[in-house]
UniProtKB/TrEMBL annotation:
Reaction catalysis annotation: cytidine(1402) in 16S rRNA + S-adenosyl-L-methionine = 2'-O-methylcytidine(1402) in 16S rRNA + S-adenosyl-L-homocysteine + H(+)
Protein known as: Ribosomal RNA small subunit methyltransferase I
Organism of provenance: Tahibacter aquaticus
Record's keyword terms, sorted: Cytoplasm, Methyltransferase, rRNA processing, S-adenosyl-L-methionine, Transferase
PROSITE patterns attached to this UniProt entry: RSMI
Gene Ontology MF term list: rRNA (cytosine-2'-O-)-methyltransferase activity
Gene coding for it: rsmI
Length: 248
């Protein structure tokens, strides 16, 4: 029977392309790729000559049915995106859902993911976190989303594009307060990898002082709102007072 392989590719450093990922992509009959022009050079470099077909936002609905039919007929197909793990702020969800609904086995070949890589070096609490993907591009909607996140006590992980990093930090300062701890993880696994940590206002100052810090690809992490010790104590006292009235 057929199978869908969901295969992570590097987010910068080509040595993060796992041997198993390469083997599977060499072996499958077809690779569905977010952007075939983007992926062709990567695959060529690793001697992977498998045929590519485009699977992006705009054709995923139709293409998913076609690919599912091929897998039902016994083919194994690989799914990749431009970088990192497919489906994580990348296409593939509809194909995976359709494959599972059709009873086709879906297997991951795990590897690079910018969000997890950033979380693993940020030094913010990582036992519980939320991944928010990209914030809305328009300022008003972005501030609204940040306002929704203001009371979040878990670490928040965001993707941001380079031309909006300053705006985003400014909005974070305005909505979350300039003292909130944050981390800016830039160009992970690449030559100019930098991971800046500090309060939001410190990050703003460091980015302003060095325009290079605005270049490349970013993951932004926001420390969760500290649990409100006072509020918890007050609630504890209130509950205790209620219980005491019931006791003999
Ligand atoms: N699927 C990918 C993954 O697993 O990380 C993410 C795809 S998303 C369209 C692209 C975004 O991921 C970029 O805008 C940036 O926020 C983040 N990103 C990708 N590569 C990165 C890197 N090397 N360093 C920092 N952030 C990166």
């Amino acid at each position: 029977t057929g199978r869908l392989w969901v295969v992570a590719t590097p987010i910068g450093n080509l040595e993060d392309f796992s041997p198993r990922a390469q083997d599977v992509l060499r072996r499958v009959s077809l690779i569905a790729a977010e952007d075939t022009r983007h992926s062709a050079p990567l695959l060529a470099r690793f001697g992977i000559g498998t045929r590519l077909v485009a699977l992006h936002e705009h054709n995923e609905r139709d293409e998913a049915d076609r690919l599912v039919a091929r897998m039902l007929a016994g083919e194994e197909i690989g799914l990749i995106s431009d970088a990192g793990t497919p489906l994580v702020s990348d296409p593939g969800f509809r194909l995976v859902r359709a494959a599972r609904a059709a009873g086709i086995a879906v297997s991951p070949i795990p590897g690079a993911c910018a969000a997890i890589a950033a979380l693993s070096v940020a030094g913010l609490p990582s036992d519980r976190f939320v991944f928010e993907g990209f914030l809305p591009a328009k300022a008003a909607a972005r501030r609204e989303r940040l306002a929704e996140l203001a009371s979040e006590s878990r670490t928040v992980v965001l993707y941001e594009s380079s031309h909006r990093v300053r705006e985003c930090l400014d909005d974070m300062a305005a909505v979350l307060g300039a003292e909130r701890p944050a981390v800016l993880a830039r160009e992970l696994t690449k030559l100019f990898e930098t991971v800046l940590d500090g309060s939001i206002s410190e990050l703003i100052a460091r980015v302003a002082a060095d325009p290079n810090q605005e270049r490349g690809e970013f993951v932004l992490l926001i420390g969760g709102r500290p649990e409100q010790e006072d509020a918890r104590l007050a609630e504890g006292r209130r509950v205790f007072a209620l219980l005491r009235e019931e006791l003999p």
